[in-house]
Design a protein that fits this description.
The chain contains 18 helices and 10 strands. It is an alpha/beta fold. The chain is globular. Strands 4-3-8-6 form a 4-stranded mixed sheet. This is Cytochrome c oxidase cbb3-type subunit 2. GO terms for molecular function: electron transfer activity; heme binding; metal ion binding.
Length: 561
């Protein structure tokens, strides 16, 4: 018997084995059709707990995006399955459960696996990041092997001139191209900024609005722009990608790499590390923050809602210091965790040495005022940050603290910007600007996408220091510590029992809500998830739920079905 014959027989055997196991058995195995999954929810008292719930089907827009995903062959390179091994879960998140594939026909497990796994990509990046990524992946990651998908954009060939609108604003010349993208007669405006190369991104929301070209710091010096406009296919594709993994709720708030706490890091200045930091910056940060760290990188035009940070201004939002400048620990925390809800991703996968090196480059090369070339002013040299502020252990959550937080919300007039419901639609929201002259959108606190972190200590830190460079003030002097804690708990509660993607209230009975609100109930992992209707003592593990397992029959028995 020749080796060639054995190889042929083995190949035929494994082909039919794969056909049976992947093609036929899923139709006979109940676990392949369950939509039961475990998900993280935030309770009324700010706690994060796992509970048993049901996956939801794709919306029409997300289904269209899935069709585009299949059409463009994205699944050839990207897998969608987090395997139950240590390396997988530390990179991507909790192990995939069978219920997550209830509405996937066919399953998109992927084959080549030469791109990142996308099973947990939902809300890892903002929509704006994805827009820049589809235009040119190498703007964000020079070593990416992904091809640009510019065919998903509407890209007119002819540039459009920038003109004066007669009211002191810059706008676009009215041409067949621009009139097809905007409504110049509309009283509602949309503010857009081209990048330094003259590329102007136009989102779908611009339809029906009048364009205003915002260049407060000479971000672009030309007189005409090339347009890259969003299409419905692109909107749908991003909607589908953002759905992936979100049947597991707010799991990212419990993801270990994004819970890094750093008080202080001692790292002496070194020319070698600054040089290494420059290399890291050029590979990982330049696309958004720009060559000079001014926040005007080639991808910045796509980030039309929240501009990248300008390091040149030495204004940093997230810190635990009394003075404006952050410590190395503050910068390390921000780089590692990322800034949720924005295009700034979490860089926990980047080696620690790279993260520390890029901090040195930002501090000593970018955070420098060079308006006088002969006497550059290095902020971190001239104004070194003081010691970190001390944050005590938070008080235990309670109804009394929540009620007090609701009162403080009114006293501090948080509603003026964030709105009474916390959705970012307050009466002052429309006119807010940052220190550089760009519009600022108040955070929608009902989303649970807190930029500085999702723990009550993170919210308290923001209440204490404010967000430098934005209209968000510090309440360190105006509110006593106990009121800042109460307000922080109240802010967390605004996203309680909300779907993190749709922001809609979750369907939870009053009994289950009361059980989850029980401060003594522990549900810290999927195998200990609370099961609705089973009482606070009943967990998913008691119903036989494992990684990818089925609880359908036992759950039906519990529910009397």
């Amino acid at each position: 018997m020749s080796a060639r014959f054995v190889t042929l027989v083995a190949g035929i055997f494994f082909f039919f084995a794969a056909l049976v196991t992947q093609g036929f058995l899923p139709f006979f195995e109940p676990s392949a059709r369950t939509n039961r999954v475990t998900a993280v929810v935030r309770t009324d008292f700010g706690q994060l707990k796992w509970m048993m719930t049901e996956a939801t089907d794709y919306t029409p827009l997300q289904q269209l995006g899935r069709d585009v995903y299949l059409r463009e062959g994205c699944w050839y390179c990207h897998s969608q399955y987090v395997r139950p091994v240590t390396g997988e879960t530390r990179r991507w998140g909790p192990v995939t459960e069978s219920g997550e594939f209830a509405y996937d026909v066919p399953h998109l497990f992927g084959t080549r696996r030469i791109g990142p796994d996308l099973m947990r990509v939902g809300l890892k990046f903002s929509d704006e990041w994805h827009l820049a990524h589809f235009w040119n992946p190498r703007m964000l990651s020079p070593d990416s092997i992904m091809a640009p998908y510019r065919g998903l954009f509407d890209e007119p060939q002819q540039p459009v001139k920038i003109v004066d609108d007669g009211a002191g604003n810059r706008t676009l010349e009215r041409t067949p191209v621009s009139e097809g993208l905007f409504d110049f007669a509309s009283k509602e405006q949309i503010r857009l900024t081209p990048n330094a190369d003259g590329l102007l991104f136009v989102p779908l929301e611009a339809r029906g609005k009048a364009p205003v070209i915002v260049i407060p710091n000479e971000e672009y010096k030309g007189d005409a722009v090339k347009i890259a406009a969003e299409t419905q296919d692109l909107e749908a594709l991003i909607a589908y990608v953002q759905k992936l993994g979100m049947n597991r709720g707010k799991w990212r708030d419990l993801f270990e790499p994004q819970q890094l706490e750093v008080t202080e890091v001692t790292f002496p200045r070194s020319s070698e590390w600054v040089a290494h930091g420059r290399e890291v910056y050029e590979r990982r940060c330049l696309g958004c923050h720009g060559v000079n760290g001014d926040g005007n990188g080639p991808a910045a035009t796509f980030l039309h809602i929240q501009r990248p940070r300008s390091f040149a201004a030495a204004v940093f939002k997230f810190r635990l210091t009394k003075e404006p400048l952050p410590t190395d620990g503050d910068l390390l925390r921000t780089i590692t965790r990322g800034v949720r809800g924005t295009a700034m991703p979490a860089w926990y996968e980047l080696p620690l040495t790279d993260r520390l090196a890029v901090i040195q480059y930002i501090k000593y090369e970018l955070a420098v005022d060079r308006s006088d070339p002969e006497q550059p002013y290095a902020f971190f040299v001239e104004e070194p940050p003081g010691p970190p502020l001390y944050i005590a252990k938070p008080p235990a959550a309670s109804q009394q603290i929540f009620d007090r937080g609701k009162e403080v919300w009114q006293i501090a007039k948080c509603w003026e910007c964030h709105g009474q419901g916390g959705k970012g639609d307050g009466e002052k929201a429309a006119g807010l600007k940052d220190d550089l002259g760009f519009g600022v959108v108040p955070a929608d606190l009902t989303s649970g996408q807190f930029k500085s972190g999702s723990a009550v200590e993170d919210i308290f830190r923001t209440m204490t220091t404010g967000l430098s460079g934005t209209p968000m003030p510090s309440y360190r002097d105006s509110l006593p510590e106990e009121d800042r804690w109460a307000l922080s708990y109240y802010v967390l509660a605004l996203s309680a029992y909300k779907d993190p993607l749709t922001l809609q209230p979750l369907t939870i009975s009053d009994t289950d809500r009361a059980a989850l609100n029980d401060l003594t109930l522990e549900a810290a992992s999927p195998d200990k998830a609370y099961v609705p209707g089973g009482g606070p003592a009943q967990k998913a593990s008691e119903l036989g739920e494992g990684n990818g397992g089925s609880v359908t029959e036992k759950q039906n028995a519990t529910e009397g079905g």
